[in-house]
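User: New here, please read:
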Amino acid sequence: MEKKYVKLQTEIPGPKSKEILERRNKYVPKGISNNSQAFVKKAQGALVEDVDGNCYIDFAGAIGTINVGHSHPRVVRALQEQASQYIHTGFNVMMYESYINLAERLCELAPGEFDKQAAFFNSGAEAVENAVKLARKYTKRQGIVSFTRGFHGRTLMTMTMTSKVKPYKYGFGPFAPEVYKAPYPYMYRRPEGMNEQQYSAMIIEQFEQFLVAEVAPETIAAVVMEPVQGEGGFIVPDTAFVKRVREICTQYGILFIADEIQTGFARTGKYFAIDHFDVIPDLMTISKSMGAGVPISGVIGRAEIMNSAEVGEIGGTYSGSPLGCRAALTVLDIIESEQLNDRARKIGNRVLEKMHLLAERFEGIGDVRGLGAMCAMEMVKDRQSKTPDKEATGKIVKAAAERGLMLLSAGIYSNVIRLLMPITITDDQLEEGLQILEEAIEAVYKNDPALTVGGE
């Protein structure tokens, strides 16, 4: 397939990127990871150009931040207009109507036929922190339950709630108290001989036992769940599990918080992933693609819970900045006018179709899964043991980058290749990117016939 969009002028990284990289290594700590060694010059839609003139197709989407594409013209215009009027006053100093407009629209979009309110912050972790604060304030309880393989951020509280030890938690303790990890279904790794229905029943029973053996439900303020686990490996739970957790929360007066930071804003084919499960959360955290690249996050929820905090107890200097609010309002307009929920479902169908075809060719692809345009492949050393293959995953990501495709890995074993391309990607760009993905897998497995079906 002739490459129409990918143009590689130099090796990657090119000479200009290498020069900047030397300065980066001198002045920026190594603790901040970099998926690519190149430096961006400009980005538009699903295409990114680096400082050396190399052009890439973006299947990473700034870790799920660019659902409406890089530098969408409508977002750019909105930001330019806002910056020409005022950049920041601080909502707690002098208010601006865009904050109210955004809160109103999101409360109307969020699931639940009850009065809702929204508060805005800066990052996903900050949204989760504030959801926890509100839950504790409202319930007058301290316990917080998250799930194995979950990811909620890098602050003290959200790092505690997160499962993956390295690189997120190792050496950074002690951690916040009264945080508990509950089991979360992982269909691909269910016990041999157990069907999906049996496995789901087992995990539900384990969750119920967890509330006896680990923590009393009467002490829990909130259960925080990603409707689809993001960093954990794009793991989609079954509806029965999500519904049962919601039922238990209702039974014991525990708040159900849906962490929609990576799954929201049309990524899964609906505005919010929780809508797939016919479950209504008490609170919802949002960020990432909410602002099309401008930092903004939020908590949406039942008005009586949101109002439990007294004046001055939540907020921050830059929380819900004018630029972020204008960007987010424009994102909602784009999702509606460009029918991005429908588009996400079509992209997801095509990506999963391609991944299943790849799995027929390569034994190293142990599982293919996804919801909407949130799709992933899990790489293993062999399909019998399902041993995670972190090394092959890293090589595939690197081989793709060398061919002009930006990819990300995920999973607690870093053996999952996840795709988060902009939902505005064109069909031709999508096909070219999928072709490069196939070429990258071929390049990695060509010297290992055992991982190619039939030893090809």
